[in-house]
Design goal:
The chain has 881 residues and is of the alpha+beta class. The protein folds into five domains: 237 residues, Bira Bifunctional Protein, Domain 2 (BirA Bifunctional Protein, domain 2), CATH 3.30.930; 147 residues, no CATH class; 107 residues, Elongation Factor Tu (Ef-tu), domain 3, CATH 2.40.30; 152 residues, Threonyl-tRNA Synthetase, Chain A, domain 2 (2-Layer Sandwich); 130 residues, Diaminopimelate Epimerase, Chain A, domain 1 (Roll). Strands 1, 2, 3, 4, 5, 6, 7, 8 and 9 form a nine-stranded mixed sheet that branches. A six-stranded antiparallel barrel has the order 13-16-20-19-18-22. InterPro entries: aa-tRNA-synth_II/BPL/LPL, Ala-tRNA-lgiase_IIc, Ala-tRNA-ligase_IIc_anticod-bd, Ala-tRNA-synth_IIc_core, Ala-tRNA-synth_IIc_N, Ala-tRNA_ligase, Ala_tRNA_ligase_euk/bac, DHHA1_dom.
Length: 881
């Protein structure tokens, strides 16, 4: 077995498959692009779905990659087990309709056991096979020469995630030796393939040969695929003879840095060791996810990051780290991964800013959470309670990020127990919400062979031409090629060449007409989409009969295209303006370019101010006025990068690319259509800027005609308002509105004063209505007041003047009820408590509440029950005194 670092092993894998004719693809962003079914890229095959289901044809049907991935469904097991991680790398080789089982198996064996490669001892390798997959069993046994004692039939070896490609798989296990055996002899899981520590799964070969159809049946795939996955962390632990994945060079430098920060030793005890592992695991995930554009937030993937960071901070506290420390680990992660992921080093400053900001905020939240725990404890003790509800504990966990174990520490000192069953019920509700929010992991389309089995060439000429005459080469009706299309049918058409732009890169597809030589409209093009080889596929409504091999005249809707081009070029100007005003971290995270408006999503972890929006808008309009020529250069990807062209977030680019240049101001890789000069855009106006979650913001804007129409609409509204106010000029409107606001404020203050006088007048009357129950005096009355605040003010006045021993006031307010109860010292000496009183009477108004011994309040939704509630006060006093 070779002695290799993790970096050397990763590169060796990629070099091996490059020798076998594979195209090595760079690891995709962890944030899925145009795939709403995934929260994160969670496997190597997740980035290959478009190839597997036939949506896109790859340049090379043989692909290899080392794909960074995130899975957080087993987050509680991180640090506890030897191999659970939130971030991991999946080494994989893929065949898209090219080689199949025999080559995949032979190459896996060669890489694992070949002297030039990993040189693992073959006698330590075991193979599991799906029982019905006799072909695979035969290849392992007869071609590779595996002894049958090392071949295990495993019923679970069938990879199936719902509709789409699926098939049997074959797993390779490494025998780590008897010293790792954690199960007794004869245990049902004590075998290669079972749940144990001795036999470690290191590689899974999936033979994707069936289509799982919506009716539950399985049909042979038109194109069979290979999908393999070997976890880098696992194979490194084997090569480096590490007890767990954490004792490898992927994690130990991080752990060593935490030792230095904390003053604790990794091996001093098992409890602390878990904290070291959790921190080392989570910081890798945070660094890579933030580098790829994800940001902490309260929802979606942002919530995952927030949770990981908070878990890291809490485990830091267990290691006596009380101050922000996670930023000190970022350079360590960057150094470990630099050979394959240099972008982490490049983004270090931004990552540090995000993590430090989030860590400091959490420490403030922890302090607030601690105050809330103490407040709850005081309330419980005041009421004589010894158990804190699971709902309260969950609220501390969910709202304040206050971990269960920290709540346990605080309440244990006060001899208060936790209702764990109730807490678990709330946790399960949260898990269910998370499961509902996650769509099915499957989501591959059922593979169609239509445009994969038949190569259909079609050239896009729309960069320079708006119309052309072209031969109709294919008509697609539903999922079949046909020779003709009848009037009234909706079909898809492919021509030998076309000026119609297919929707991609955020730009919508063109619309237009298909005509014959006599200028008769034969069909209307409603949209255009891209085929597996990038062909424009025209979605049309047929008006007159169409025939394959006939020539037709194709003409796009020119006006619509020009409007789209103006909006598209404006997104390039806006992108650069965002970076100039907000910072280099503001990267495009999606866009939609239509004829009516543009939508631009970007990464940013703070609010965008009005002043910043004005700056960006002014900058874009300045570039429009400068009448800068917009040029497009076709070149290779390396030359484009040398030119300083900006690659958009998450996009995949081929060897040949188009670079859109707007002088030296903006240089972007882009396949869309654009104006020839910025002055054609005319005008740029931002309509709105909002947050859309997970550290992503959205700008909606309009250009040219759209911007002009919007400004006309706003001016019309202003004129209408001005007319209603009988103003001579729009310039007088701000002054008039300011005057109205002042008037409203004065009226409101006068209203407040009247309410206060009314309340005081009532108080003079109410405080004379004193009843006696036993030896206690009681005031229990309904009053007319503005709100709960006035009730409290009356309670303060009652307390200052000692009008009675007990006060209960009720208020009806817009279909609801407010109640307050206050007890003086004499009432409390009889062990009466305001909190108990309010809880007794609030059910009469279908409400609830609580509070201290001397003061409590409640709300309800049944005003008709207020007289009964007030009447019940006397009964309560009699029963409890």
């Amino acid at each position: 077995m070779k002695d290799l670092s993790s970096s050397e092993l990763r590169q060796l894998f990629l070099d091996f498959f490059k020798e076998k004719g594979h195209q090595v693809e760079k690891s995709a962003s962890l944030v899925p692009v145009e795939d709403p079914t995934l929260l994160w890229i969670n496997s190597g095959v997740a980035t290959m779905k478009k190839y597997f289901d036939g949506t896109v044809r790859p340049d090379n049907p043989r692909i290899a990659s080392s794909q960074k991935s995130i899975r957080t469904n087993d987050i509680e097991n991180v640090g506890v087990t030897a191999r659970h991680h939130t971030l991991f790398e999946m080494l994989g080789n893929f065949s898209i309709g090219d080689y199949f089982k025999e080559e995949a198996i032979e190459w896996a064996w060669e890489f694992l056991t070949g002297e030039k490669w990993l040189a693992l001892d073959p006698s330590k390798l075991y193979i599991t096979v799906y029982p019905q997959d006799e072909e695979t069993y035969s290849i392992w046994k007869d071609k590779i020469g595996i002894d049958e004692s090392h071949l295990i039939l495993e019923e679970g070896n069938f990879w199936d995630i719902g509709e789409g490609p699926c098939g049997p798989d074959s797993e390779i296990f490494y025998d780590r030796g008897e010293s790792f055996n954690d199960l007794p002899a004869g245990h049902e899981e004590n075998y290669p393939g079972g749940e144990n520590e001795r036999w470690l799964e290191i590689w899974n070969l999936v033979f994707s040969e069936f289509n799982h159809k919506s009716d539950g049946t399985y049909a042979p795939l038109p194109n069979k695929n290979i999908d393999t996955g070997m976890g880098l962390e696992r194979i490194v632990s084997v090569i480096q003879n590490a007890p767990t994945n954490f004792e490898t060079d992927l994690f130990m430098p991080i752990i060593n840095k935490v030792e230095w920060i904390s003053g604790h030793d990794y091996n001093e005890n098992e409890k602390n060791k878990i904290s070291f592992k959790v921190i080392a695991d989570h910081i890798r995930t945070l660094v890579f996810a933030i580098s790829d554009g994800a940001l902490p937030s309260n929802e979606g993937r942002g919530y995952v990051l927030r949770r990981l960071l908070r878990r890291s901070v809490m485990h830091g506290r267990k290691l006596s780290i009380e101050k922000p420390f996670l930023t000190q680990l970022i350079p360590v992660v960057a150094e470990i991964m630099h050979d394959h992921y240099p972008e982490v080093s490049e983004n270090t400053e931004f990552i540090e800013k995000v993590i430090l900001n989030e860590e400091e905020r959490f420490l403030e939240t922890l302090a607030a959470g601690l105050d809330r725990v103490k407040e709850i404890v005081e309330e419980l003790k005041a009421e004589g309670q010894t158990v804190i509800s699971g709902k309260d504990v969950f609220q501390l966990y969910d709202t304040y990020g206050f971990p269960l174990e920290l709540t346990e520490e605080v309440v244990e000192e006060e001899e208060i127990a936790i209702n764990y069953e109730e807490f678990e019920v709330e946790m399960e509700k949260q898990r269910e919400r998370a499961r509902s929010a996650r769509q099915a992991e499957g989501s591959m389309a059922v593979q169609s062979s239509l445009l994969n089995d038949v190569s259909v060439e079609s050239d896009f000429i729309g960069y320079s031409e708006d119309e052309t005459s072209s031969e109709l080469v294919k008509i697609i009706k539903e999922d079949s090629f046909v020779q003709e299309a009848e009037p009234g049918e909706s079909v898809r058409l492919i021509f030998s060449e076309s000026p119609f732009y297919a929707e991609k890169g955020g730009q919508v597809g063109d619309s237009g007409l298909i005509m014959d030589d006599e200028q008769t409209v034969m069909a209307e093009v409603t949209n255009v989409k891209s085929g597996p080889d990038g062909q424009p596929i025209h979605e049309v409504e047929v008006r007159h009969k169409l025939n394959v091999n006939d020539t037709y005249h194709l003409i796009i809707d020119r006006k619509r295209r020009r409007l789209i081009e103006r909006n598209h070029t404006a997104t390039h100007l806006l992108h650069q303006a965002l970076k100039d005003v907000l910072g280099e971290h503001a990267n495009q995270a999606g866009s939609l370019v239509e004829d009516s408006q543009l939508r631009f999503d970007f990464t940013h972890f703070g609010q965008v101010t009005e002043e910043e929006l004005k700056q960006m808008e002014a900058q874009v309009n300045q570039k429009i006025q400068e009448n800068i020529r917009v040029e497009t250069v076709e070149t290779d990807i390396d030359t484009a990068k040398d030119m300083g062209a900006m690659a958009l977030f998450g996009e995949k680019y081929g060897k040949h690319v188009r670079v859109v240049l707007i002088d030296d101001y903006s240089k972007e890789l882009c396949g869309g259509t654009h104006v020839t000069s910025t002055s054609e855009i005319g005008l740029f106006k931002i309509l709105s800027e909002t947050g859309i979650g997970a550290g992503t913001r959205r700008i909606i804007a309009r250009t040219s005609e759209g911007a002009y129409r919007w400004m006309e609409e706003q001016l019309t509204i202003l004129k209408q308002v001005s007319k209603l106010m009988k103003l001579q000029s729009l310039h007088d409107l701000p002054v008039r509105v300011e005057g109205l606001q002042k008037e409203i404020k004065e009226i409101s203050q006068a209203n407040e004063s009247l309410h206060a006088k009314l309340a005081n007048a009532q108080a003079e009357d109410i405080f004379t209505k004193v009843d006696t129950v036993g030896d206690l005096t009681v005031i229990a009355e309904e009053i007319k007041a503005k709100d709960m605040n006035q009730l409290r003010q009356l309670a303060d006045k009652w307390k200052q003047n000692n009008y009675s021993d007990i006060l209960v006031l009720g208020l009806r307010n817009e279909g609801k009820v407010n109640l307050i109860a206050s007890l003086n010292e004499k009432a409390r000496d009889k062990e009466l408590k305001a909190g108990h009183l309010i809880k007794t009477i609030s059910p009469y108004v279908k409400g609830g509440g609580g509070g201290r011994d001397d003061f409590a309040q409640a709300g309800g939704k049944n005003p008709d029950g207020l007289p009964e509630a007030l009447k019940a006060v006397s009964d309560w006093i009699k029963d409890n005194s």
